[in-house]
């Protein structure tokens, strides 16, 4: 793939951004000394939300790292299912794509 460098730069940029976001999401604010149970519940929910956001970010990070690994190994942009080249417009939208359009459609991801 000719534009592999473009995707590498893109992936590294996304990787850094997500790492930053994960740190931000996991940095749980100190629970206040609120005696009001309603406010305390709100704070606990807020922490729960942050942690599930962090979870989503982390699984994307795994995909990004996997894609960067594939660039190193020269397997980037190749569908993991059928071995065909993944079209560039797919990679433009999701640079860490593992599957080509057809396989993605079939596996319903
Ligand atoms: Zn495929």
**Helix run count:** 4
**Largest sheet, strands/sense/barrel:** none
Bound ligand species: zinc ion
Structural class: mainly alpha
Question: What value does the Rg take, in angstroms?
Answer: 19 Å
Low-confidence stretches: none
Distance between the termini: 24 Å
Helix % is 55-70%
Mean pLDDT: 91
Q: Tell me, briefly, the overall form.
A: elongated
Strand content: under 5%
The helix/strand order is HHHH
- Secondary structure tally: strands: 0
Description of the molecule:
The relative contact order is 0.15. The model has no long low-confidence stretch (mean pLDDT 91). The protein has helices at residues 4-26, 37-73, 88-93, 101-107. It has 109 residues and is mainly α. The chain is built from 4 helices and no strands. Zinc ion is lined by residues 79, 81-82, 84, 99-100, 102-103.
């Amino acid at each position: 793939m000719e534009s592999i460098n473009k995707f590498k730069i893109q992936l590294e940029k996304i990787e850094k951004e997500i790492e930053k976001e994960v740190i931000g999401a996991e940095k749980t604010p100190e629970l206040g000394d609120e005696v009001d149970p309603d406010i305390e519940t709100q704070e606990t929910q807020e922490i729960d939300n942050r942690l599930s956001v962090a979870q989503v970010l982390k699984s994307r990070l795994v995909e990004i790292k996997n894609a960067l690994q594939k660039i190193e190994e020269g397997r980037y942009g190749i569908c993991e299912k059928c071995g065909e080249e993944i079209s560039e417009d797919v990679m433009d939208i999701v640079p860490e794509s593992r599957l080509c359009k057809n396989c993605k459609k079939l596996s319903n991801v």
